[in-house]
Amino acid sequence: MFGSSLDSSQLIDSVYQTLYMVTVSLLLGALIGIPLGILLVITRKNGIWPNSIIYYLLNPIINIFRSLPFIILLIAIVPFTKLIVGTSIGTSAAIVPLTVYVAPYIARLVENSLLEVNSGVIEAAHAMGASPIQIIRYFLLPEALGSLILALTTSIIGLIGATAMAGAVGGGGIGDLALAYGYQRFDTIVIIITVIILVIMVQVIQSLGNVLSKLVRRS
């Protein structure tokens, strides 16, 4: 391809692996991170369900995982990854650290999005006699939906960058391709191609996120 040792089928497979890792880890991370983000908001001192034990337990744990660079986290939880999928190498194995990485990231972004909701909305819900679950379902989440979409967009872009780093330990995807062909074989063309693909992915996802967010806020 373009005078490179790279075969087009290998490029297609790498793009598929990256999309697979991002999609699965995002879904799993969202299933964990969104509830955690909601808990951080509702259990704080002035939340709709104050609980200092839960809040002061979750907050530092999320901070600890958020503070770890992905490449360090990737190596640190190798035993846990082997326990879950039986190996620490490959695309499926990379999903475990990617999920652990993105879940607290999503939780913090969700927390920030929900905290932007006007307190008057919550007060109105209380005045109507809504329960905490009803406030979350019918008031808090709908009001923050546009911001939540942007938060998930940011999470996806962060995951794309993390999948590239996963290639350093044989995680597959674009990063693995860039390392195996571009770096180790000194193939500059491969590096350029992979960078272009990653830039296109990020631009498309960010544009879609912006459009969806605007549509939700106008409705």
From TrEMBL:
It is found in: Cell membrane. Residues 15-206 form the ABC transmembrane type-1 domain. It is a multi-pass membrane protein. Keywords: Cell membrane, Ion transport, Membrane, Nickel, Nickel transport, Transmembrane, Transmembrane helix, Transport. One of its GO terms (cellular component) is plasma membrane. GO terms for biological process: D-methionine transmembrane transport; nickel cation transport. The keyword Transmembrane helix applies. The keyword Phosphoprotein does not apply. InterPro entries: AA_ABC_Transporter_Permease (IPR051322), MetI-like (IPR000515), MetI-like_sf (IPR035906). It comes from the Bacteria. Pfam families: BPD_transp_1. The chain crosses the membrane at residues 20-42, 54-77, 83-103, 144-169, 189-212. Belongs to the binding-protein-dependent transport system permease family. CysTW subfamily. This is Putative ABC transporter permease. It comes from Mammaliicoccus stepanovicii. The lineage of its organism: Bacteria, Bacillati, Bacillota, Bacilli, Bacillales. The gene is metI_1.
